């Protein structure tokens, strides 16, 4: 952002004419004012976790659908077995974390 002549003049005017004596005389002024301010409201970002879990579960469901429809009837290959085990493990871990998060949200 460019500072033009008016901005510089305003800045200079404020520096010259601001009453600094009141704040300089009382060193506890800032602390007293800050202690009387209301606390900042806490922001709730729990919806981000829920959205990530929903998206992850949707991707996991799509993985199961692709896995099931890619199986050849009557033939079980090693790659199918390893893919099924990996997909099962990912699904269990994801559900474990999602349910834990939902239970923690319910407690608060």
Characterization of this structure:
- The chain has helices at 5-17, 21-25, 29-36, 46-70, 78-107.
- It has 108 residues and is mainly α.
- The model has no long low-confidence stretch (mean pLDDT 84).
- Helix 4 (46-70) packs antiparallel against helix 5 (78-107).
- It folds into two domains: 5-36, no CATH class; 46-107.
End-to-end Cα distance, whole Å, is 44 Å
Number of helices: 5
What's the helix-strand series? HHHHH
The largest sheet is:
none
Flag low-confidence runs. none
Give the strand content: under 5%
Derived from helix and strand composition plus strand pairing, the structural class reads mainly alpha
Radius of gyration: 30 Å
Oligomer: single chain
Counted beta strands: 0
Characterize the overall form. elongated
Total domain units = 2
Helical percentage:
over 70%
The whole-number mean of residue pLDDT values reads 84
What's the arrangement of secondary structure elements?
Layout: H1 5-17, H2 21-25, H3 29-36, H4 46-70, H5 78-107
Helix pairs in contact: 4-5
Quick recap:
By secondary structure, the protein is an all-alpha fold. It has helices at residues 5-17, 21-25, 29-36, 46-70, 78-107. It folds into two domains: 5-36, no CATH class; 46-107.
């Amino acid at each position: 952002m460019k500072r033009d002549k008016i901005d510089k003049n305003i800045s200079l005017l404020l520096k010259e004419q601001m009453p600094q004596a009141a704040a300089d005389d009382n060193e506890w002024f800032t602390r007293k004012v800050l202690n009387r301010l209301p606390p900042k409201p806490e922001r709730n970002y729990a919806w981000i976790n829920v959205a990530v879990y929903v998206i992850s579960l949707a991707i996991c469901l799509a993985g199961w659908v692709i896995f099931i429809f890619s199986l050849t009837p009557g033939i079980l290959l090693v790659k199918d077995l390893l893919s099924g085990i990996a997909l099962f493990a990912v699904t269990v871990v994801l559900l474990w974390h999602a349910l834990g998060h939902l239970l923690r949200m319910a407690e608060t």
